[in-house]
Amino acid sequence: GWESWFYDVSAEFPGVATALVESAESGNCLFTLGAAGNMVPIERGISPRFKIGKALGGETVRLLQFMETSADIILAVGSRQVELPLKNALEKDSYVKLPKSGKLEVELQVVRIGGLYLVALPGEVLVEVGTAIKDGSGGEQTLIVSLANGSIGYICHREAYGEGGYE
Q1: Cys bridge to 17: 53, 126, 138, 149, which one at CB 3.0-4.6 A?
Q2: pLDDT tier at 60, thresholds 50, 70, 90
Q3: DSSP assigned state of 99
């Protein structure tokens, strides 16, 4: 049915938003998911996805009208391997091969575009983790990019481990 297809195959609200921006401005629109691993919309279903996508796309088009561009910009990229501690009790059917060390090594990337820093992690980052990264970066223009270069599952803050790790 339509609802099953929408959840299994669809680009959901980002697809609606990017299509709206591309039709209004031409070119390609890129969507990245921030630290939203433990966030859900108030309303679920097909109709809210279109409402959210239209609202996001419309606000993006509005903000684009006030943006100034420059050819004089600093571009830089860096990456580093970091170890993330794993939760003690993990399900046996985990889709990630878990190391016996109790830690999972992942690649953390940072992309600098002028004064904007994109911190890319390969999982669904919980809001609290994203906030801690932003606070520790010392820069106001630090954005988290979830699900970058793979998906290792949820990246939780320590307190979430005792709460089950999600919601």
Answers
A1: 53
A2: very high
A3: P
Could you tell me if 90 and 49 are in contact, meaning their C-beta atoms sit under 8 angstroms apart? no
58-to-3, 11, 28, 70, 97 alpha-carbon distances in Å? 24, 17, 15, 24, 41
What is the value of pTM for the model shown? Answer: 0.80
77: number of CA atoms within 13 Å, CB side?
3
Q: What is the mean pLDDT of the chain?
A: 84
Q: Which of 157, 106, 149 is nearest to 129 (CA)?
A: 157
Closest of 134, 162, 160 to residue 37, by C-alpha: 160
Asked if residues 148 and 161 have their Cβ atoms less than 8 Å apart, the reply is no
Which of 109, 158, 145, 147 is closest to 34 using CA atoms? 145
